[in-house]
Amino acid sequence: MEFTWRLRATSKIQMKCLRDFLFADDDAVTAHSAEDLQQLMDSFSKACQDFGLTISLKKTQVMGQDVDSPPCITISAQELEVVHDFVYLGSTISDTLSLDTELNKRIGKAATTFSRLTKRVWLNKKLTEHTKIQVYRACVLSTLLYCSESWTLYARQERKLNTFHMCCPRRILSITWQDKVPNSAVLERAGISSMYTLLKQ
């Protein structure tokens, strides 16, 4: 199934051909103004009706970024819920244009993953340090840095990520802060890079 959808941008009209719309999930429609967004949603809603597709209005939300007042967008005369942030493809997008919300959730998910592996991995005496670090890389770091290639971070945000990152190998290697072992020595023993290097990579 396919249909053509006319999109009106700020200065020109584009023709978009959308295919395979028997089922769609996690779609995002963006515009530079509330008026443009309403026109896009009207066109999209009409196209869905023509092809017998149903938009889930309960799951459809609208968010404005860098606007004076929240946008009022309707579909079939029903006003959509305005939210301050939402999750799209696993990443949290905020109306404040800040990454703080996303980073807090990333750290929270990584901490949960780390905690769940405590008994089976970190405290497992049958596993070598190398194996434990590899599990940390695969399970915890991948969760922490998901979608990080699209981040533009401030120094304070990098420090926040690095603080969490340094706590993990210290716990895995049973190195406490009272041992007065510098971070560089911990990273060298673990064989992993600092958070700043990982973010650059």
Descriptive notes:
By secondary structure, this protein is an alpha+beta fold. Helix content is 43%, strand content 15%. The protein is built from seven helices and eight strands. It has helices at residues 34-50, 100-116, 118-122, 129-144, 155-172, 183-190, 195-200; strands at residues 2-8, 13-19, 61-62, 74-75, 78-79, 81-82, 85-88, 91-94. A two-stranded antiparallel ribbon has the order 1-2. β4 and β5 (78-79) form a beta hairpin. α2 runs antiparallel to α4 (129-144), α2 packs parallel to α5 and α4 (129-144) runs antiparallel to α5 (155-172). The longest helix is centred in the C-terminal third of the chain and has 18 residues, at 155-172. The protein is elongated and about 65 Å long. Residues 1-10 have low confidence and may be disordered.
Low-confidence sequence ranges: 1-10
Helix content: 40-55%
* Number of distinct helices: 7
Structural class: alpha+beta
Summary?
Residues 1-93 form the Reverse transcriptase domain. With 201 residues, the chain is of the alpha+beta class. It contains seven helices and eight strands; from the N terminus they run ββαββββββαααααα.
